[in-house]
Design brief:
The protein is of the alpha+beta class and about 110 residues long. About 20% of the residues lie in helices and about 15% in strands. The protein contains one helix and four strands, in the order αββββ. A four-stranded antiparallel beta sheet has the order 1-2-3-4, with no helix packed on it. β2 (about 75-80) and β3 form a beta hairpin. The longest helix is centred in the first third of the chain and has 19 residues, at about 1-20. It is elongated, with a radius of gyration of 25 Å. The relative contact order is 0.14.
Length: about 110
């Protein structure tokens, strides 16, 4: 009987702490709210084959740090918003989206 009482007491003491621990920011008197992700994915900022305006976007340096293959054969990586694209250096034509190839430190 004493073991059951201790178990119930322990659950009552630690259960609220476990429930509130799921919230990233727990403020007294508030509850956690899960914000749903949109069902329709956001469109890409640029299209494959589009020619970029010179000087508008930044070139991604140190591609190996981000887990990307080394730049070669006249193309570079460009950061466009939060995405990485492989772009022809001479014509500034977008060749492909390569964000999925980047490591977690991107």
């Amino acid at each position: 009987m004493l073991n059951k009482l201790l178990l119930v007491t322990a659950l009552l003491v630690f259960l609220p702490a476990a429930v509130t621990a799921q919230c990233r920011i727990a403020v007294a008197g508030t509850a956690c709210v899960a914000v749903p992700k949109p069902l329709v994915p956001e469109p890409d900022p640029v299209a494959i084959g589009q020619t970029l305006e010179r000087g508008k976007y930044s070139m991604l340096m140190n591609a190996r740090y981000y887990g990307l293959p080394t730049v070669s054969e006249g193309w570079v990586y460009m950061r466009i918003e939060e995405e990485i694209y492989r772009v022809d250096w001479r014509s500034h034509e977008v060749l492909e989206k390569v964000t999925h190839l980047a490591s977690r430190n991107w």
